[in-house]
Every structure is written in structure tokens, then in C-alpha cells.
Write a structure and sequence with these properties.
homodimer; alpha+beta; D-amino Acid Aminotransferase, Chain A, domain 1; D-amino Acid Aminotransferase, Chain A, domain 2; nine-stranded mixed β-sheet; 8 helices; 19 strands; about 25% helix; transferase (chains A, B); amino-acid biosynthesis (chains A, B); B_amino_transII (chains A, B); Branched-chain-amino-acid aminotransferase (chains A, B)
Chain lengths: ~350, ~350
Amino acid sequence: MENQEIQITYTTTEKPKPNAESLEFGKIFTDHMFIMDYSLEDGWHSPRILPYQPITLDPAAIVFHYGQTVFEGLKAYKTKDGHVRLFRPNKNMERLNRSNRRLCIPEIDEEFALQAIRELVRLEKDWIPTAPGTSLYIRPFIISTEPYLGVAPSKRYQFIIILSPVGAYYKEGINPVKIAVEQTFVRAVNGGTGEAKTAGNYASSLKAQELVAEKGYAQVLWLDGVEKKYIEEVGSMNMFFKVDGEVITPSLNGSILEGVTRNSVITLLQHWGIPVIEKKISIDEIYQAYKDGLLEEAFGTGTAAVISPVGELSWNGEKLAINGGKIGEVSQRLYDTLTGIQYGTKEDTFNWIIEVS
Amino acid sequence: MENQEIQITYTTTEKPKPNAESLEFGKIFTDHMFIMDYSLEDGWHSPRILPYQPITLDPAAIVFHYGQTVFEGLKAYKTKDGHVRLFRPNKNMERLNRSNRRLCIPEIDEEFALQAIRELVRLEKDWIPTAPGTSLYIRPFIISTEPYLGVAPSKRYQFIIILSPVGAYYKEGINPVKIAVEQTFVRAVNGGTGEAKTAGNYASSLKAQELVAEKGYAQVLWLDGVEKKYIEEVGSMNMFFKVDGEVITPSLNGSILEGVTRNSVITLLQHWGIPVIEKKISIDEIYQAYKDGLLEEAFGTGTAAVISPVGELSWNGEKLAINGGKIGEVSQRLYDTLTGIQYGTKEDTFNWIIEVS
């Protein structure tokens, strides 16, 4: 696989680059995309970069009916001096293969997939916005393409990478969000697909999200599917709390996603000597900490927001105001450090950065 | 919606009809398909029948990433005198809308969707095989087509119907299958999407299915996601047991699919005066019934097999042989009656049949 050459077909009609000020998330795509095919006979083959174009599939393709698909999300950042950098992309490739195993999708060569990302990003480097907080979002994904209505793993797949320039997550400083603890719907359960990055997890989350949005909440905080008692994730981010000087986060229990930002946050906190513990956390424990005046900070972690502080938690009809609705000290330090490493203004102590160009 | 006319574009190159003897499930498709579009501005619009052809979508289409999709499955049967019949298709359309509501997909007009099915099947009536047990499988499905990587309901959809001639499920008489009780993986949990017919439920089932197949089992029997104790479904069928003269089936608890065949079986049993009870059924209860010599029959129900008798159940390392591995009396009677109604050799007592032509 490593020796396969990526064929490139250049676009003949370059699209206009968007205005960095008005950039949203995931709506505009660059001039090119990467595709690679899988068949039982040839394995993963024919890696190529093509002009960004529609995918053409048989209406019976398995992805439309049985959702056998996985994806990843990461970003390319441009430094002030024009260097293009990726943040721990090897972690995303490892997770893509973990998702593949859960979904019965043939594994990819992680080194080669990373090479494909770098080659595509290099080609599209002029699409990477440079305004503060902006970046190029990278979406690798695999879809099952065999036309067959039987419920069985597909015999054919496509691995595709598309790129989208995205605006700053926080356009006017970091605003803590209001989160509602979800007590009816469940995102995932042990034995399900919760720790895989696959379509069904997101489809099932839409309804809960829609209902809390009507009440003015930005996201839901998911509880476990068994007892509806233990904290899992918030929206599509991992969740952290700072309680009485100690940072706690739900342990990887099989139903939550192993976030790259989550892992980086834990590493940073350990490095700083701030106690950080991965454990089973009940919503009651958080409520009690709040009542005792010990709930100091709460924040989500993910590729899009990096750190998303939670200013209010709604649970059982009560509204828990956290840190006066303002971002906490540790949250701010984590945000500054992670984005500093990503954009090259802070030292990359842990060798997290991979240069593209 | 009812007054919208379905535009028809006929194919200019008819495909050869397959040999009825060699027909498999869901691999061959007819000459035409139905499509209808949805947008926020126009609602569901532009219903049309086109030559069967690939779907062209932006690679960022939501269905590829977040699996916002629902589907249905039903069959058209041809009687000896050439009539074409559908079995309770209104139930499928009702369920499609229930699935739509769970997945935040705009509801369709059920009457119009049924009209579309009838018009498409009528056009393709020569594709309906006539050998015993064969039929034309109908797959209506909805996919989210908006190109957007944010996790939110799509603003655009396509409702598509494709048709596939399928062979007899039982080519050499009804062979009871071996089923393994699944003790690791979970199909669905209360608060999830288990009662919706949506892609993610099927994607998550592939791994368990793959592992039991290696041990010679045809399907898995799913237990509930909370206690891993209560019976949910078998593979993609509903499950029934006959214990000491009484038929029992798991009640609709929010995480199992409300099968049309399941409902029909309950109706028939009640009509025949055979006790049938919907209730929470633990695997221990079934095991105890087996030990006491009271487990008389076990069978799955679904559109593909109609009735699928279970001859062996594997649980906790034990193999429970049911009715000597042969089909039971009630299972056989249900199969004969349901297929008799479908193919027009038995009276349609409950007005379940809708004529196409």
C-alpha cells in the first residue's frame, strides 16, 4: 500500500475562495478530493486525487440502507509564517481503524491514509484560511458501495477525503454554552457502537438535540443507556468537570468516543501537575458538588471547539450555573495551550504536530 | 400531494429478466425506480418514475456522514391468475412515518407513497416472478442529501423506491435455523432508535452476526441493552415462543421493531383462539420452559421469511433443541395461512390485501 502512487487529476475550474469572515462550518468544500476503492479481489486500490465532484452510487448501495460507514474529523492549521500543520492525525487514523473493526469494514493502511491527507492538504494549501481561529477541516470517511439489500458487510467500499475551510468557532471570545442533561433519549449503550465514529450514533442524536434547542440549550449531555445515571458525552464532545481542584472525566467505557482532544487535555493536565482522573461519574455526584460549592468548571472537548466551557447545566428542572457562567481558569489555559500548539505560537512539547509542507 | 401527477420516463433498454430458479435476495433490480424530492421551500415534490439509475450526491451529503435515513420493506405477490397484490402496505407507510419522526425527517403523505408504490409495481409487473414462494421485494427509502458536515437534520431529502425480484426464502421446504443468544453486543436500547427502521440499527448488528456465523449460527437473538436479560428480536425479525400451549412474544417496548408480520401473526392466533400474550420475556424464562419440557415452538417473523422456525437456541454454552429441530404445528399453520393470503390461495379474512392491478 505504502508504495502506491496517488494519481492526480487537477481541476480546470478553480472555485473562488470564500471570505474568511463569513466562513461557517462544513458548508464549503475545496477544489479537490481524495478517493480510494476497495474490492475483495484487489483490497484497497486506485488511490487518486480528483476535482471535487459528486459521488455516483447504485440506489441499492449498502450505505443508504444499512449505514455501514465510518468517518473522522481533524483540522489543518496555517501558522503565521505559512507552515501547514496537522494535530495528532495518527490518532485519528488509529481510531478510524478501530471504527472499521466495529463496523466490519476492511482496515486501511494508517500510514498511507495519512500520506493521502498530507498530499491533498498540500495541494489545497491556498484554501486554508489564516484569520485567527480559522482552519481547514479534514473529513476522511468510508462508505459501503455494494448494491445489495441483504444485511451483510459490503464487498465494496470507497475511502474519501474532503476538505472544508471553516471559520473561528468562537467569533467573539469564548462564550460558555448552556447544556441540558438528556433524560429520555440515549446516544449509545455498552455493546453498541458508541465508541465508533459511525453514522448511526449521529442520526440517533438528532431528535434529542432538536428538542433541547427549542428550549434554548446548545447541546445535550448524554447519560449512560443502562441506568441513565452516569455521564457519557456532551453533544459530540467529551466532557470534563473540575471539582474541588481535581479534574474528572468519564472513563472510556465502550460507549463513549475516545476523543483526540480528550487525550490531549489529560496529557496536558498531568504535565501541569493538575490532578486528572478518568472514572465513572454520576450526574448526582456533579449535582452534589454543585450544591457543596465545589463544581468549579465544566467543559467539553472536541476538534471543532477545542474547549467548550459549560456555563449552565439543566437537570431535573434545576439550572446549575457554573463559575458564574464564565470560562474557568483551567479551561482557558487548556484552550490557549492547545490552540497555541496547533497554530505554532506555543512550543510543541509532546511532538503532536505533523508538518504538511 | 394526492393530486401530484407522477411523471414517467420509460427506459429505452429493458434489462433481461432473471431466471426464477436462481434468484437470490436483493441483488437484481427492475427497469425503473421512483424518486421524489424534498426541500424546505417546496416540501415533497417532483414525484417521478425514471429508468433505474445511479444516485448522484455531493460527497458531503448528510446520509454518508450522519446516517439520517429510514427505509421500509414489503413485497408484491402474483397470484395464479395474474393478479398483483400487496400485503398490508399501509402498515409499512405508517411505520415509515414513525421512523421519520424519530429521525427528524419530514413525514410523507402515506396515501401518496402507497400510490407511488402501486404505480411503480404496475409498470414493472412483468418482473414479478411466479414460481412458488417468489415475489417482488419493494424497498422504499429516504436519504438526507444536503451537503453539510454539521450534525443537524438535513434540509433536503430524496424518497426513492426500488424493486427487486426475489427467490423463494425456503427453496427446499422450511428448514428451522440455529440461533445464538447474543451476550456481548447490543442492537438497541430504550431511548435509542430500535423501533425505527433506520440504517444505524443494521450497521451495529453486523459484527455480532459475523461472529456467530463463524460458529455456524444463522442469526443472533438480541437481548435488551439494559440488563442483557430480556428477549428483543432475532436478527431482523420479531420473535415468538410457544410455551405450554400459549404463544408469547416480546411486547413493543420502544427498542424493538413493530413488525407487520408480527402484528398479523398475533391477529391470526387470536382469531384461532390460541392464547397469545405480548410481554417482557426473559431468556431465563425460556430456558426454564425448555428444562421443564414446555418449550414447544420458537419462530421469527418478518417480511423475507414470513415465519422462520428456530430449531436450536444456543445460550450460555448450552444448546436448546426445540421441537426436535423440526417446524412446529402452529408455525406451519401460520406460514401456510399468511403465504396463502399473500398468494391468493386462502381467503383474505382481515382485508389485508391491496390489489395493484
